[in-house]
Specification:
By secondary structure, the protein is α/β, with parallel strands linked by helices. Helix content is 33%, strand content 17%. Strands 3, 4, 5, 6, 7, 8, 9 and 10 form an 8-stranded mixed beta sheet that branches. The chain has a two-stranded antiparallel sheet with strand order 1-2. The protein is globular, with a radius of gyration of 25 Å. The termini are far apart.
Length: 291
């Protein structure tokens, strides 16, 4: 008998891997933790939401829903929604379009890709439009254009500032030219409002692309963006193939656009209310800029 047999004989063989009981696999409820796509750190989702969905480690700005934006930006209890009942039809009889709209309504609890309403920011009355990328990727169809136009007209009627948060994949393909017409429609409404002395503040969030970036998103008296937001008209690959050149790594980011004069400032989300309040106070009768 070999010496090693004195210590191994009749001893149960140890398993290389521990078996995890089936019940233990479900101990952590889905959604309780969130992983930052930028720094890869993991944090409690509840803490992330408390921090306005800004990463606690690196400051990465997660996408927000329209409801989350209202909760973080508007004075509590002051928001009154406008034109909630308007819903999209299928004017071009695009196959499966109505079914996709209904699926998005169920998923997002929204009737359309934009929420409009009246409210206040630190006591300053405004009319607000918030695009939500969870509904058809925030795409701009006839109803999106109509709701934004009506919101601008309401701001004109009340003589209060109009603020819009944009988040969109561009024009909605299922509505064809009708979707593209919303670019002109919203732009005309903003021009009339501006001619009457109205204040327009546009805040571009990730992503703001296509016909939205080429129309109302870029027509503010102040054009702001959140850090790291993708802001573009055509896709990066399309541009590179057209001009046959490689574009800079940060091309079409908020930081690139600020550097090249297309934005007035980049506003971190946690400073958003304070900065917008300062602007609203400046534009009050007798308002002054404080440095």
């Amino acid at each position: 008998m070999a010496l090693k047999d004195l210590f191994t004989k009749n001893q149960p063989k140890k398993k290389k891997y521990a078996t995890i009981p089936e019940t233990a696999k479900n101990d952590v409820p889905e959604g309780i933790m969130s992983k930052c796509p930028s720094c890869k750190k993991i944090m409690y989702t509840k803490e992330l939401v408390k921090n306005a969905k800004v990463c606690l480690h690196c400051g990465f700005h997660f996408q927000m829903t329209a409801k989350e934006r209202i909760d973080s930006f508007i004075d509590e209890g002051s928001f009154e929604e406008l034109n909630e009942e308007i819903v999209s039809m299928n004017p071009l009889n695009f196959p499966g379009y109505l079914e996709k709209l209904e699926k998005d309504r169920q998923k997002s609890n929204l009737n359309e890709a934009v929420v409009t309403g009246m409210g206040s920011v630190n006591g300053h009355k405004i009319v607000l439009a918030i695009m939500d990328a969870s509904f058809r990727m925030g795409s701009m169809g006839s109803v999106v254009g109509e709701k934004i136009t009506r919101a601008v007209e309401k701001a004109d009627e009340l003589s209060v500032p109009f603020i819009i948060f944009t988040a969109s994949g561009g024009a909605r393909m299922q509505e064809g030219a009708l979707s593209l017409m919303q670019m002109a429609k919203t732009s005309v409404a903003l021009k009339k409002f501006s001619n009457n002395g109205g204040l327009i503040i546009s805040i571009m969030t990730h992503p703001t692309t296509g016909g939205v970036s080429a129309s109302f998103a870029s027509l503010g008296d102040y054009n702001f963006a959140e850090p790291g937001a993708l802001i573009a008209f055509a896709g990066r690959r399309v541009i590179e193939q057209s001009i046959r050149e490689e574009l800079p790594e940060d091309f079409q980011t908020a930081e690139f656009l600020l550097k090249h004069g297309q934005l007035d400032a980049i506003l971190p989300r946690l400073e958003m209310v304070e900065q917008i309040t300062n602007i609203l106070e400046i534009h009050q009768p007798g308002g002054e800029l404080e440095w």
